[in-house]
Design goal:
It is a single chain. Helix content is 71%, strand content 0%. By secondary structure, it is mostly helical. α1 crosses α2, α1 crosses α4 and α5 crosses α8. The model has no long low-confidence stretch (mean pLDDT 84).
Length: 187
């Protein structure tokens, strides 16, 4: 999860960290239900005053960015957990499902986050996600199941359809993800 500190770089007190975590969790759920949820509604649902909310997240955009970072961190942790629990190709396929859900959330946030923030978030996360994809691919390469000529940065163009479909409601998503995995397999 995201490292929590004050603007001066000091670590948050435990109660402040608990407030931050509760706010982010409540915001994640609220934004998933209604992307127009207000900061006041989030503060009320999290059981904190508006001052506490605005001190930690001065703008709605800063809260959305933190929700995004938190979700992104979970996405990376999930990839590593799946590799521990499943065979490499199965872990890769399962992670693609998680990535599809994350893409839906990211798409919803894109309407709210301005272009500068989206660019900053992308730059901030790109190397981290490539490292996870590399781990997933390398595990499959080590077992001889994934083609050795596939680079991590070649996977995302293959998955770009996710950004054009509603992964939760489009029946083609699972089939298309299976096709991507088949393309990565050793013939």
């Amino acid at each position: 999860m995201s490292t929590s500190s004050t603007p001066s770089g000091r670590a948050l007190r435990s109660d402040a960290e608990q407030n931050r975590a509760r706010i982010v969790t409540i915001a994640r759920l609220a934004f998933a239900e209604d992307s127009a949820t207000t900061m006041q509604a989030i503060a009320r649902a999290a059981g904190v005053g508006q001052g506490t909310l605005y001190r930690r997240f001065p703008t709605r955009e800063s809260l959305l960015a933190e929700v995004y970072r938190d979700e992104f961190d979970e996405l990376l942790v999930t990839a590593r957990r799946l590799l521990d629990e499943h065979e490499p190709v199965d872990a890769l396929r399962r992670w693609f499902d998680v990535l599809a859900s994350f893409g839906r959330m990211k798409h919803a946030l894109a309407d709210v986050l301005d272009a500068v923030t989206r660019s900053d978030l992308h730059d901030e996360q790109y190397d981290r996600i490539l490292a996870v994809v590399d781990d997933l691919l390398q595990a499959g390469k080590d077992t001889g199941e994934i083609r050795s000529d596939i680079a991590p940065d070649e996977v995302f163009p293959l998955l770009s359809f996710l950004w054009h479909l509603e992964p939760q409601s489009d029946a083609r998503t699972a089939h298309l993800l299976d096709l991507v995995v088949d393309a990565l397999r050793v013939p």
